[in-house]
Amino acid sequence: MADLAPPVRPVPASERWLAAYVGLIVLFLALPVLIVVPLAFSSDVSLTFPPRGVSLRWFSNIWARPEFLSAFGLSAAVAVVATAISMVAGVLAAIAFVRHAFPGRDALLMLFMTPLVFPAIVLAAALALVMTPLGLLRSFWGLALAHVVLTLPYILRTAVATLTEIDRSYAEAAHTLGADRWQAFRHVTLPMLRPGLLAGATFALIISFDEFTVSMFLVGPGVMTLPLEMYNYSEFTLDPTLAAISTVLLVLTSIAILVIEKLVGLGKQFGG
Amino acid sequence: MAASSQPSSDAVGVDLRAVRKWYGPVQAVRDVSLAIRPGEIVSLLGPSGCGKTTTLRMIAGLEHPDAGEIRIGGALVNAVAPWKRNIGMVFQNYALFPHMSVAENVAFGLAMRREGRAAIDAKVAAAMAQVRLAPLADRRPSQLSGGQRQRVALARAIVTRPSVLLLDEPLAALDRKLREQMQVEIKQLQREVGITTVFVTHDQEEALTLSDRIVVMEEGRVVQTGTPSEVYERPRSRFVSDFIGFTNAVRGRVEAVEAGTATVAMGSGQTIRVPAEADIAPAQAVDLVVRPEKVEVDPPEAARPGRTLIAGTLRHSVYTGAVTYHHVDIGGGETLIAMTPNGDGHAGPPALGSPVTLGVRPENMLVFARAG
């Protein structure tokens, strides 16, 4: 992130080894993702690398299959709705956790965080069991609420961390200047929370959009998320269509991250 | 020195009656009663944990008293939210809103009062000029120096024309020189605006400089209230005399009391006669307390009339520019420090090791019963 020019000096051997080692790790992490891109433009019917020719047929295949588009739409809608609910709940919860002392506060905060550490499959089964009697199984709202459970910890954690850093004297100063609780929150606390919240929301959107295990138990005909639609497709056909979809997602995600980075400096939110 | 500020016509008083505040089992404020007059500038002075900040925050409405009454302009405000009290407050860390410009910070209170754009602009400009910050209107607080932030916080607090201005250790974060400059500025501003002001400080010098009256607090209680000179010259306890200014304290034992005068024997066996309060009784262990500048140092043959005299030996003299401190051994393991100004008319000090006589006007020697 820092664009300070390093001083010119001879690089010791140990640092060159370190650079090579780091380079290898980066390559290892990025390689599978990067292989997806050339495959998406392949003219082959099967997934072979390196591709023998270039074509855009797999991208047009996405358009030709309405189930991908509707799954994309559903995933996006679920992600936005779940993130929005998590934001409201997360900020309110963070205010309670940070600004007020009450019995069982630490235990409750831990409970909110458990979806981060519990095996997803346990949560998936549990949610399916709860949703069934509620009639929410295989429904948009069932899926969205399940995603709230999954995304809330990310929002709550960044909101708690950001709010802890905001001295309560700011809100108090607003009060002494005539702002009631809502005005102080709206004009002072919330703007100061914004960078942390945007970072949390970015995470929440990605987590929700990407979610597989829990969604698998809750989806059904007409309510299908993109990752599951892709998985279903791969069971019958393993052609570069999946690579093409992945490439589109890669580009969209990168744009989103860049925009948010420009707006608030995402790196700062994660100690970068 | 104790000249009162000119109250503006709409200045109001602040009254606290038997106010108490607990934090769990700890009683932070114990039966504090205060009557702050309209337009007056009063400081709450004491060490950390004496309840001064809690008292200020209760006047602001940021804390709620567990018992007692708080009145602003005669109206009971115990149940009134801070945003309805029409107060201005400067916080120790200033609490300037970091996402707003200086001008937006100053305009905040006016915006909350739903004033019109034009009125806000005019009042903000006037307040900024008053604290000499007009050129910095578009800066962010993070781009300002400590003294500038202080001024923004002051401008923000007074621009709404509050009934009461509350300052919580407003100068603690500034370096000494800037602090002294800001003390003068705050006092001037307070007189111009004529606003009833309460400020909290642990710095006795700041309290002496800024206040019409000082309220000295200790362990949640008010231990003395008075003008700066009253509190400095006539402290009512060892605590107050120690907390405000430097003071000498010499142990003694009361030998006799008659007609408001006590005869006290010091460790060396010397006895002196001092005016005594009613709580001083024969055989009591006491502290004799005197300010260094009230002690005169003379050769024994030049002892001045009408003084309480103590014989001693000059051990060393510390020259500090404007004044010199003379450390005088008065026997019995006790030392008294005398301060003499280094003006032209003063004779040089007696030679080190030579016998001297210390002279104190009887009314300047205070006697406090020793605890325990």
Q: Could you characterize the architecture of this molecule?
A:
- The complex is a heterodimer of chains A (272) and B (372).
- Chain A contains twelve helices and no strands.
- Chain A is an all-alpha fold and 272 residues long.
- Chain A has a single domain (68-269), classed as MetI-like fold, CATH 1.10.3720.10.
- Chain B has 372 residues and is α+β, with helices and mostly antiparallel strands.
- Chain B is built from eight helices and 20 strands.
- In chain B, strands 6-7-8-3-9-10 form a six-stranded mixed beta sheet, with helices on both faces.
- In chain B, helix 2 crosses helix 3 and helix 3 (117-130) packs across helix 4 (146-158).
- Chain B starts with 13 loop residues before the first strand and ends with a strand.
CATH architectural name of chain A: Orthogonal Bundle
What general outline of chain B do the C-alpha atoms trace?
Answer: elongated
Give the SSE string of chain A: HHHHHHHHHHHH
What is the chains' assembly state?
heterodimer
CATH class of the largest domain in chain B: Alpha Beta
Largest interface: A-B, 18 and 27 residues
Helix content of chain A: over 70%
| Morphology of chain A | globular
N- to C-terminal distance of chain A: 7 Å
Q: Helix tally of chain B?
A: 8
- Average pLDDT number of chain A: 88
Radius of gyration of chain A using CA atoms only: 23 Å
Query: How many strands, what sense, and barrel or not for the largest sheet of chain A?
Result: none
